[in-house]
Amino acid sequence: MASNLGPAFAYTVVYCKDVAKSVAFYAKAFGYNVRRLDENRKWGELESGATTIAFTPVHQHETDDITGHVQTPQSRGDRQPIELCFDYVDIDAAYKRAIENGAMAVSEPEEKKWGQKVGYVRDPDGNIVRLGSHVKS
Fold first, then answer.
1. pTM listed for this prediction
2. Strand residue runs (E) in the chain
3. What is the mean pLDDT of residues 90-119?
4. Strand ranges (DSSP E) for 17-83?
């Protein structure tokens, strides 16, 4: 039977300098299990529910010629036009865990007017990661 929901969102791909290091960092800092790390270390995946978080090198000939070069932040004041957002029941513990495992602090968790507690960190490649509680109804 066909679904009216449209296609399933399958992957978020994070372009990084070192796939193995990024996979290990995300597993430790954010509490994910590693699903896959290819022998050539050009592809890695984390178990994250219905959507897979995948990692691949910033520079790779397989896609550079097709989709263009990945633009990385040039300074701490720059960021990518996308961020990863993870929901936690205990945002303070999640933020502490991320920092203790190598994430760079951006903004400690604070209550937002829309009913969510949110904190921000950067991964080793400078990507912004939002750690948030579930939005209260």
1. 0.82
2. 11-16, 33-37, 44-47, 52-57, 84-88, 104-111, 117-122, 128-133
3. 95
4. 33-37, 44-47, 52-57
Report d(CA 111, CA 126) in Å as an integer: 24
Residue count of the chain: 137
- The fold of 79-137 is 2,3-Dihydroxybiphenyl 1,2-Dioxygenase; domain 1 (3.10.180)
* Domain 8-65, CATH among 3.30.70.240, 3.10.180.10, 2.60.130.10, 3.30.470.20: 3.10.180.10
For 22-80, how does the pLDDT look when each residue is reduced to its tens digit (9 = 90+)? Answer: 999 999 999 999 999 999 999 999 998 888 889 888 776 666 566 666 666 676 677 77
H or E element that contains 20: helix 19-30
Residue 90 sits at the vertex; the CA angle it makes with 86 and 94, to the nearest 5 degrees, is 55
Query: What pLDDT, on the 0 to 100 scale, is given for residue 58?
Result: 78
Which is nearest to 32 in space by CA: 91, 98, 110?
98
> Which tokens go with 131?
């750690």
Q: How far is CA 11 from the centre of its chain?
A: 11
